[in-house]
Specification:
Chains A, B: Belongs to the FPP/GGPP synthase family. Chains A, B: InterPro entries: Isoprenoid_synthase_dom_sf, Polyprenyl_synt, Polyprenyl_synt_CS, Prenyl_diphosphate_synthase. Two copies of one chain form a homodimer. Chain A has 301 residues and is mainly alpha-helical. Chain A has a single domain, classed as Farnesyl Diphosphate Synthase (Orthogonal Bundle), CATH 1.10.600.10. Chain A is 72% helix and 1% strand. Chain A is built from 14 helices and two strands; from the N terminus they run ααααββαααααααααα. In chain A, a hairpin with a 2-residue loop joins strand 1 and strand 2. The longest helix of chain A has 31 residues. The model of chain A has no long low-confidence stretch (mean pLDDT 94). Chains A and B meet through helix 2, helix 4, helix 6, helix 7 and helix 8 of A and helix 2, helix 4, helix 6, helix 7 and helix 8 of B.
Amino acid sequence: MDFKSWSTERASHFELCAKKALPPDNRLPWKLHEAMRYAVLDGGKRIRPLLAYAAGELVGAKEEALDHIALALEYIHSYSLVHDDMPCMDNDTLRRGKLTTHKKYGEAMGMLTGDALQAQAFYELTQTKLAGDQIAVLVKVLATAAGSAGMCGGQAVDLLSVHQKLDLDTLTLMHRLKTGAMIRASALMGLYAGEQLPPPALIGLIIQYADAIGLAFQVIDDILDVTADTAVLGKTAGKDAAEDKPTYVSILGLNQSRIMAQNEINRALEALKSIEELSEIYQGKTTRLEEIARYILSRDH
Amino acid sequence: MDFKSWSTERASHFELCAKKALPPDNRLPWKLHEAMRYAVLDGGKRIRPLLAYAAGELVGAKEEALDHIALALEYIHSYSLVHDDMPCMDNDTLRRGKLTTHKKYGEAMGMLTGDALQAQAFYELTQTKLAGDQIAVLVKVLATAAGSAGMCGGQAVDLLSVHQKLDLDTLTLMHRLKTGAMIRASALMGLYAGEQLPPPALIGLIIQYADAIGLAFQVIDDILDVTADTAVLGKTAGKDAAEDKPTYVSILGLNQSRIMAQNEINRALEALKSIEELSEIYQGKTTRLEEIARYILSRDH
């Protein structure tokens, strides 16, 4: 199966899982459940689920466990978008080509939707049917990636950096937290879903891979904010410049940004090559991870 | 030790644990960490930690595990207060006698503070040094109580009920979710920290106890909103009536509300009596739980 077919199939499968797992909107409090479903369903590139599925393939993880991990990752990601779009943060009206959650359901409900999705994410991890020790590790990895040492921390740095002149290192630190931490967690959690504890060498290489594609993802995001238009992007283009936010493009320029993204993807591919050399168990099993890396470089939205 | 000494000692002990466990405000992103510490430290009645410690005593749970459980409970509670106080929700300026978190740090940081505290709560559960299976149960109980089937769900019902005439049953359902779910979780998580899985009869009785004091707590809250003044309360008094929110006092009147609170406390005390009769293991070990119930009835803030 080529990457497009695989990723489309995985995304549809994920959508079915999410429809089944999210609290139904005919159960009280139905309005909150409706908003949670609105925030998660029918949208997004599902990069984090794809990463978890692809990393899980490396270690022969069971699909059922990966499904719940994918849900947990996407709930956290979705909640962060809902909160990020609110007036006190980015004040955005469009997301994934539709109204942002708070625009549709009101600000208070938007905040609660995000809050409830975060709790639901940790609940999902308890539904994996993995051993207790594995669930505990998954909770720890996800909580670390989502909290102040990860995503929320990156958003705080981002918040404090508007109208500031950031250097490249600080910008990169911010993104390593803001988006990188959850991308790293996505790949790691796929590994931890395997029956055996992954060997440290594999963990190290998956981190190298994930950190590289995470950074490339962000650089491409900054490039698309300048080069793509709103219709293709599904969110408001040109916002970074309008808001005087530091980006890779504003620091490095378009050309150097493209080179940086390519370099990061190369680093990611090198990590995958080292994984294949690590043991014959992994041989031929990094294809999906490689395709994800190449997709991130070539995406147009 | 009498209740006042015990609860003061536990609250100081909790404070020390929280000071140590919360990310230090000299670590990046320091502003977020400062706000997280501001939201949690130096405030509150610590009812949820007290309940976890008291329930843990019943089953001989280790203090270290209870400490992390107490932290997790209070992080969730604190985050809910931070978000609840924001302009799009209750728009409050005072909490525990000091400025609300978003008033001190700004709205965006307030939202992130709450979000990061929720993640930190689940992280704490992985630090209990309990068996993986126990951690998984604790995560499940906390996530259920905090999410749309619990606290967030109750807040959503609350949100949709302003300016509505609620009947007593709907008001009670709302509070069972909004505050009751986390109070139930506090007692349950104390039990689950014991070395053995608690017997179903004990779980049932602890739930009866916790649900009764949870309801009494809310009825007393509604009474205090009418009868106490802002200085003693540490938050703005008289807000419910000013905002035309349905309360026990508005539906039942002051007198009947007081009787209802007393009845719920009686139900809680009966549950404790049944626990003592369940097995000699529990004899003489429900004293703290009883004192908490009596305190809830008599509190003036």
